[in-house]
Specification:
Distance between the termini: 94 Å
Helix content: 10-25%
Largest sheet: 6 strands, mixed
Number of strands: 21
Shape: globular
Radius of gyration: 32 Å
Strand order of the largest sheet: 12-21-20-19-15-18
Number of helices: 10
């Protein structure tokens, strides 16, 4: 009892203890207060008139919060966990990356909403995580509290506005509080905005430009934009060699492994999306139309503009011209930029020309789209394509880049082939496939043979609402813009 009395006196003086739960003849006695646990060994309670010995330890007592996978949007209900950036016991802060997940539309990096310690990972790699279900358990400081809904395990999926902080893998979102507030007010994910500030910091102008692309509004040109005039003849840049060596396809060398057993894998990620999309496409009666385009003048124009584009930091391919010409054609034939509802009772004419471009990546076929092509210049389209291609190669395309398409072009010619039969991507109603450009002999108006740059195009349209004559007229208009590039100037706005 003397030892207990001494312990009480010492701890009361320190102001750290409120009570003694129990005292027994055991190896240790515990005195408990919020956030602190004092442990006294039996041996430590022995004291004499010469000295008193105590040993204490402080242990954090936090609150466990189940951090749930929020609604990513676009009707996504499940994702595959591709990579964990943390492990149990790690400390995390707000906006720290937790894991990368992949849906059937895009890869997204989930970041923390809290400061705390990871106590449990609810999924292993390549397991399916469900929206609204716990992703990780995080121990946070109990004094800071947490939103009431986070304490409830079984809750319906959060709304789109309550999403977790998300960002594209490999990109840190740098922005001031004012910019974040502007993005929040307009329901814009910072991970989908390209920053133009130092270290890719997102500026107010970046948010406004992104918002303009989504709404189709035209903003005044940025004062930073500088138009570089064509170089005079005496200062021409080194011209690219006209006669390029013919590219010979090199077979991909892979080690041949014979296991002797069949292997079964689940269909996940973009392949799963392809299964859904192509299954839905089977319900569409496809109408096909093919033609050839003489790109001789366009090839010459591109060679003249490539050096200027390189000075401005943009790689200029033929695709921006194809996309812009398609947009001009859609203005005349808006039925090709429409969608048909499931009951086939209503046709919706899309105001924006969000033209998708099929890309072959390591993850499979993806179709990001350039938003609001109707208000973009050829140079702006080229710049956006460069961004989409770089993100696509790195597997970092966001959901916004991969959704909302209204019309699609597939450039199969970069791999090879001339004609193909493209499959429509629902809910779109038309798609075009472009073959490779070949140098072929053709006759001019005088009957003379000349060397022409020929490309074949294959169109597919939903025959329920698009007839063959409409598709042919659209193709002819698109063809005229490409065969006479200067004619596009008459219709540009």
């Amino acid at each position: 009892m003397a030892a207990v009395t001494a312990a009480r006196s010492s701890c009361r003086a320190a102001g750290r203890l409120v009570c003694i739960h129990r005292v027994r003849s055991c190896s240790s006695i515990r005195f408990i207060k919020s956030k602190y646990v004092c442990v006294f060994d039996k041996s430590a309670l022995k004291f004499s008139h010469q000295q008193r010995l105590f040993r204490t330890s402080a242990v954090s007592c936090g609150q466990i919060v189940q951090f749930k996978l929020s609604d990513i949007g676009e009707g996504i209900t499940e994702v595959t966990v591709k990579e964990w950036y943390i492990k149990e016991g790690d400390s995390v802060s707000q906006f720290d990356s937790i894991c990368e997940v992949q849906s059937d539309k895009a890869s997204v990096t989930i970041t923390s909403r809290y400061d705390g310690i990871i106590r449990k990972l609810h999924y292993n790699l390549d397991e399916i995580a469900y929206v609204g279900k716990p992703l990780v358990d995080i121990e946070i400081d109990a004094s800071k509290g947490v939103a009431p809904e986070e304490d409830v395990v079984e809750t319906p999926p959060m709304s789109h506005e309550e999403h977790t902080h998300q960002e594209i893998k490999g990109h840190k979102t740098l922005a001031t509080p004012a910019v974040r507030r502007l993005a929040m007010e307009n329901n814009i994910k910072l991970s989908e905005v390209v920053g133009t500030g130092k270290d890719n910091r997102i500026l107010k102008e970046d948010i406004l430009n992104y918002l303009a692309k989504q709404t189709g509004a035209i903003l005044p040109p940025s004062p930073k934009a500088e138009i570089i005039p064509p170089l005079p003849k005496s200062e021409t840049l080194p011209a690219a060699p006209k006669d390029k060596a013919r590219k010979i396809p090199v077979p991909v060398s892979r080690p041949i492994v014979f296991s002797g057993k069949d292997k079964t894998e689940s269909v996940t990620g973009f392949h799963k999306a392809m299964v859904k999309t192509m299954s839905a496409a089977l319900k569409i009666p496809h109408f096909g139309y093919c033609d050839e385009i003489d790109l001789t003048q366009l090839v010459q124009l591109r060679e003249e503009l490539k050096p200027l584009a390189q000075i401005r930091g943009v790689k200029l391919s033929f695709m921006p011209f194809f996309i812009k010409a398609a947009s001009l054609g859609l203005l005349q034939y808006p039925i090709l930029n429409a969608s048909l509802d499931e009951s086939c009772q209503n046709v919706t004419y899309k105001a924006s020309h969000n033209i998708g471009v099929a890309m072959d990546t390591e993850q499979g076929l993806i179709v990001p789209n350039v938003k609001n092509v109707q208000v973009l210049s050829v140079f702006e389209i080229a710049s956006e394509l460069n961004r989409l291609q770089s993100l696509g190669s790195a597997g970092q395309l966001g959901t916004n880049d991969l959704t909302g398409g209204t019309f699609t072009l597939s450039n199969i010619g970069t791999i090879g082939g001339t004609y193909t039969k493209p499959v429509i991507l629902p809910p779109e109603v038309a798609i075009g496939a472009l073959g490779k450009i070949q140098v072929l002999p053709r006759f001019n108006g005088k009957g003379e043979v000349f060397k022409a740059q020929i490309m074949n195009v294959s169109w597919s349209a939903d025959h329920r609402i698009i007839d063959g004559a409409t598709m042919a007229r659209f193709s002819n208009l698109w063809k005229s813009y490409l065969e006479n590039p200067a004619s596009m100037l008459l219709d540009l706005k």
